């Protein structure tokens, strides 16, 4: 009913369905709703079996149809503005009447209900037909400029859509700024420009067999303005979302880290509907045979400002590491680079380390710069912290960072997370209250790095019913 833009008769249609279902004989049945130009037909189809049947309430037509194996009972009600004569019958009500004001309000709600630019033309056409016209065609311009292209076509009689499409293909579309007449044989056809914020985004073409009433023209123009604004909003939203995704991808490794000989796994999930560019990042890359560097960090805030620091951090880490700087020296130079950003600088927490494969496991040297505690899980189930917190980056120019060493024996697991995990909130409680993250990790004995990361992510999702408002990054290393 929403797709047909006839929400106002939902109650009557549901009451019809209830009346029809009340007469079923006890056999299995289907309820079918059929859009028929100016009406909605409700059918209850069940296996043949005869019971008395009378007209249901509110039905303008009803009946029973039999086939060899089924009995179909149906009833029909008129759509608002419908009636005899099909899509060309116009309800004698001014454009300012309460019925049409409700129609425009419903249309606005439907248009505002999607931010998918490809869905807006379909909604426009299905709002217009059959209340304002027998058919509607929407043409749009690629990226709001350039030649018009067909976006959606809808006819009250679906069997006529192909014929109408061919006819429209032979019709010259107008290029003016106001409503224009289309010359399409027996059809009374008009084209309304879809213009928003000074840009022409497309046109809305309407057709009916009789003349458009003046009230209909006013309504169509009003609807065109609302539709154009909804279309422009959807395009802007889609463009922003695409830009955010592209920027986010540029701030993360180009592909999933490959670490032969090292059991590792990384999970990254940005927060927000549009995957707004966040401040969390990770990296894991080889230095030489049997040696890797890793980093997991969190920049204060989101958006372009945070993204600038995120990009600076990830690329500086890689560059300095490949230049041969030790872990502590890399963190120190990154701190200075962030401070040199001046007013654009953002605070950054970082866990950065170097992994070396040895005969009895992994040797790791690391620095935790204001980052949530890194945890080690032993095969016995014991969990301990492996690095003392030092100064976060972008605050103190005199900060002095020092490396710490940790050994992962066979089966040991190292877990690093951002505060999207530790500060996941449910009411007044945080996930890491009373060592909550350590307790979760202690339940991951004998699991692979991937399984540990997935277990932590699932726990974060299940901790609270509402979506997380913060980015999430999880890095797991397991000694073979």
UniProtKB/TrEMBL annotation:
Pfam short name (any one): SpoIIE
Domain (PPM-type phosphatase) ranges: 262-479
Keywords (A to Z) from UniProt: Hydrolase
Gene Ontology molecular function, alphabetical: phosphatase activity
InterPro entries reported in the protein's UniProt record: Bact_Sigma-Reg (IPR052016), GAF-like_dom_sf (IPR029016), PPM-type-like_dom_sf (IPR036457), PPM-type_phosphatase-like_dom (IPR001932)
Protein name: PPM-type phosphatase domain-containing protein
Organism: Planotetraspora silvatica
